[in-house]
Specification:
This protein is of the alpha+beta class. It folds into 2 domains: about 60 residues, no CATH class; about 190 residues, Aminopeptidase, CATH 3.40.630.30. Helices cover about 35% and strands about 20% of the residues. The chain is built from 10 helices and 9 strands. It has a 7-stranded mixed sheet with strand order 3-4-5-6-7-9-8, with helices on both faces. A two-stranded antiparallel sheet has the order 1-2. Helix 2 packs across helix 3. The two termini are about 40 Å apart.
Length: about 300
């Protein structure tokens, strides 16, 4: 084992912690993976900023550790199935008649937060992302908020996901000016615009930038209501081989540079994905100071 342990999901798991987890499994061979994740989080003090356990994130990490040969998990309990990688395909999500109205004719937009408790709305959201977003659908892990946008005539126009920030990206971290210790403490104050879909039959000038502006006003309060703290910076990664990022520029976001092309789980030196433009938008006037801990 490496002397200082292994890094997963932005956290270093020491060799002693890995040994402890394996002993825990050996002592409780019938423990469920869900219960194991909760116990591990409690014992190693892995909490969200709002004080709740990072048990879902821990479950993903434990599976990855098993894939890497670091430990052996107890068998999955019968009846449990992992999150779907392909969502239930909801009816009524086929391409609709073109929407080519001027923005003024669509306003005011109707904004809906998609609750996990609303199964139908959640599955409908996932279907649209699966069918029409170039990155497709991925099960949500960790803190996130999903939105659906309709026009005043109740026509579906767009969908958006905000989720936890990327653990590390040099241009953003240099722009903020924080060190590794501060980043670990305050990374939760950044949220990532991980999915933004304007439906392909919707063609309306300035719609995307209008939605981004609306989110800058609404999303921080919604996030605080769900998770107990208010984000101060938004980020997004735009594949420049497919998109210009013009809507972010029009909404006064700032482009900082490009990603390396390495994905979250990739530990190799070479890139495995397209490099993407990094865009940020302060959600508070003193966002940088708050991120480096210079303001209360």
């Amino acid at each position: 084992m490496p002397e200082d342990g292994f890094k997963y999901s932005g956290r270093i798991f020491s060799n002693s912690e890995l040994e402890y987890i394996q002993r825990l499994i050996e002592k409780q061979p019938d423990i469920s993976r869900a219960a194991l994740s909760r116990q591990v989080c409690q014992d190693i003090k892995w909490f969200r900023p709002d004080g709740r356990l990072k048990d879902m994130r821990c479950r993903v990490v434990l599976l990855k550790m098993q894939e890497d040969g670091l430990l052996t998990l107890p068998p999955a309990k019968q009846g449990w199935t992992p999150p779907r990688k392909t969502p239930v395909i909801m009816p009524g999500t086929d391409p609709a008649p073109p929407v080519k109205d001027d923005l003024a004719e669509l306003l005011p937009l109707k904004v809906e937060v998609i609750s996990r408790k609303n199964l139908e709305a959640s599955q409908r959201y996932n279907t649209f992302i699966h069918r029409y977003h170039y990155l497709g659908y991925q099960p949500a892990v960790g803190a996130n908020i999903r939105y659906a946008f309709k026009d005043r005539h109740d026509r579906e126009l767009a969908f958006m996901t905000w989720s936890s920030a990327a653990w590390q990206t040099a241009p953003r971290d240099e722009w903020i000016g924080w060190n590794q210790t501060v980043r670990e403490e305050r990374l939760h104050l950044i949220v990532n615009n991980s999915r933004f879909l304007i439906l392909p039959w919707v063609s309306c000038k300035n719609l995307a930038s209008h939605i981004l502006g609306k989110m800058a006003r609404l999303m921080p309060s919604d996030w605080e209501g769900l998770y107990g703290y208010r984000p101060v910076l938004a980020e997004s990664f735009v594949d420049a081989t497919l998109y210009t990022g013009h809507c972010y520029l029009a909404a006064n976001w700032k482009k900082l540079g490009k990603t390396t092309g390495r994905t979250k789980w990739n530990k190799k030196v070479q890139a495995v994905a397209n490099k993407k433009d990094i865009w940020v938008y302060p959600l508070a006037k003193n966002a940088k100071e708050l991120l480096v801990g210079e303001s209360p």
